[in-house]
Design a protein that fits this description.
Order of helices and strands: HHHEEHHHHH
Radius of gyration: 18 Å
Largest sheet: 2 strands, antiparallel
Helix content: 40-55%
Structural class: mainly alpha
Number of strands: 2
Low-confidence stretches: 170-178
Distance between the termini: 38 Å
Strand order of the largest sheet: 1-2
């Protein structure tokens, strides 16, 4: 079968998913992992249908049954973008700060994703990262470069914290090239 851009993107995303999770993703989760909007589920479903029986399979009557048909995914290191992780964190902090005080127990999705990615990246490197919200907010006041993976980003000032980035606004954070 011809390797298309979409097919390879789905396979890479699913391999990354299964290196972390035991069960397959929902269609919504797969959209999110592919960087697509939930309203694009039909598109992802069409893409999946074109590789069904070749690369992937699922039981249409069972949730989270999507799985890869290859016996073993390629052994490779997990490549999680530090820049994207910092964007998730900054976006999540801005969203959290906009919540009313009584709703702040509901952690915004971007913040949950950013913290999970940060923790996983650190775990894979044998380093420590904040494990919960209080630890994260303590860390957010320190320099971004106190997180070792962020030190690899060129031109990142050691004086900048996640908290300062959020004060500048998500628009700036989204367009910044850390």
């Amino acid at each position: 079968m011809k390797i298309t851009k979409h097919r390879q993107k789905i396979l890479d995303t699913l391999q990354q998913w299964f290196s972390i999770h035991k069960q397959g993703p929902t269609l919504e989760e797969l959209c999110q992992e592919l960087g697509m909007q939930p309203r694009q589920k039909a598109t992802v479903q069409r893409w999946l249908q074109t590789i069904r029986g070749i690369d992937v399979e699922w039981d249409k009557h069972s949730a989270r049954s999507l799985h890869l048909l290859t016996s073993e995914p390629e052994a490779r290191s997990l490549d999680i973008s530090v820049t994207d992780t910092l964007r998730y964190l900054a976006t999540g902090v801005v969203q959290w700060e906009k919540l009313e005080l009584e709703k702040r127990s509901q952690v915004p999705e971007a913040l949950r994703i950013g913290m999970s990615r940060m923790y996983l990246t650190s775990l894979l490197r044998g380093e420590q990262a904040p494990e919960n919200l209080p630890q994260f907010f303590d860390w957010a006041e320190t320099s971004i470069t106190s997180w070792k993976p962020a030190q690899e980003i060129k031109y990142l000032s050691p004086d900048v914290s996640v908290e300062e980035c959020t004060r500048l606004g998500v628009g700036l954070v989204k367009s910044a090239h850390f």
